[in-house]
Amino acid sequence: PGPLLFVEKPDFVWGLIASMYLGNIAGLIVVLTCVPLFAAILRIPFSIIAPVIIVICAIGAYTVHNSMFDVYLMVVFGVIGYAFKKLGYPLAPMVLALVLGDRAEENFRNAIKGSQGDMLVFFSNGLVGGLTSLALLLLFWPLIRAGWRVVLGKS
Fold this sequence. Notes:
By secondary structure, the chain is an all-alpha fold. The chain has helices at about 5-10, 10-40, 45-65, 70-85, 90-115, 125-150.
């Protein structure tokens, strides 16, 4: 298409925009009519809904590669998540790491390759250096805080 899409095919463009508006209206109607059903789900006892959720998750895990290994992996991470919850660890950083980990690692590798192995690329200007310093500070904050408590004599 390119930059002349609005000039060369205005019918397509305005039809696309109109379909987005109609899709939003249809979505609004579906949501408003289904809210009572969604609210009714909240009244189902946890002892009934938990096994249903586990079965749906297992089916979803199996269908990714048609492999029981994925189901076992789901169970392992479920146990890890349960242990984290019981031990008081926050789950948000773990989920964030699982979601962003691959992309962050790939971009880190690209930055190192682009700088020919020079780690100082992460301090190359003020903004990048500030963000890197802030990330390192937040990463080591528990150790820093524990060290300050030891220095100040608090336990």
